[in-house]
Known about the structure:
Nucleotidyltransferase, domain 5
Amino acid sequence: MANEEFKVIAGIDTHADTHHVALITDYGKRLGDRKFLAVGSGYRQIAAYLTRFGPVTAVGIEGTGSYGAELARVLAEHGFIIREVNRPNRAERRLRGKSDPLDAYQAAESVLADRGTSTPKARDGYVEALRVLRTARTSAMKARTALMNQISAVLTAATDEVRAKYRGLSSEARVKAMASSRPTGDRADPVTATLMTLKRLGTRHRFLSEEINETDAALEAIILTYAPELMDVKGVGVVVASQLLVTFGDNPERMNSEAAFAALAGVAAVPASSGKTSRHRLCRGGDRQANSSLYRIVVVRMSTDARTRAYVAKRTEDGLSKKEIIRCLKRYVAREIFHVMKNPRSAPLTNDLRILRLKLGLTQVFVAAALGTWPGTISRIEHGKSQDCEAISRYRAWLEEQAPERN
């Protein structure tokens, strides 16, 4: 059969130790399948096997974020078009059965039908570094929370002699006092054993806090280098920005529209109409961590942003509950985040603003108070770390207005 008579589509079922590859034509005929080891030599063999019957149109891979991550990277480097394939639904699997060859063929057929496929995230850029760092941060945060619960449990059951040492202290001061304490005495004595345990827990808490702070510093450095404009969005900090970038991935072009991002973040309303009833329901799917990040932005804006507070007041008068208002706001925030990520604006130069301010004899605190902002915001503008064009222009105009008055 001549190669030009058909196009080849590949499907790959990935596992920890082996990958199963299946090839079909563009009209569904099965050409063959084979199992390969999930190692470097196996990846090269897969790349060679894919072109056995002719040029490959696309390769569908299950699990491009787990077992198939390295394979997807290798094949992309070889020039193959990669498509991420969702797992088959359970009903179809019950009807057709399950095996590695069947799953591989089904992956190829999904690509052919353009069903349940998407562009996988690229995992070779700074966003992948953010994702890995966030993994360490998340585990440290969970461990620290569990540690605080343990400390509370130990103190609750401790004698009044032990509780008196830490009574009236804030959580941070209490942990610091525990870590710096030096309990002595008979280890068989319950009081001594409790104090020694609290010291160990306090020391562990301090270590985890240092690890979290170091990770946050690394996250901030990466974000300010590659996506500083995201940090200028109201309500966005290091943790929220890093999560939104991870949700977008290293290849944001895979997100075609703001509606696609809203659906991915779980803030797109889902139609639930029937007959004469026309309504929408809450979406409970999507990336829940991205959804949580949008929620945190909304909560911050509801307490600090005048425009958001005005919107909340108006919608409250319309009869909406607080939950319903937050859902609406999350959708609006998703739209704003999408446009910032897809169309970053280059900020004007700011290296002369600090010199101009010092010539006028003004402090950052004074300038911040005059402009109704924070000294940290002024510092970020002067050091070129802010992409907020409006704030930069406002700061420059204000300084130029002060120059004649000072002369």
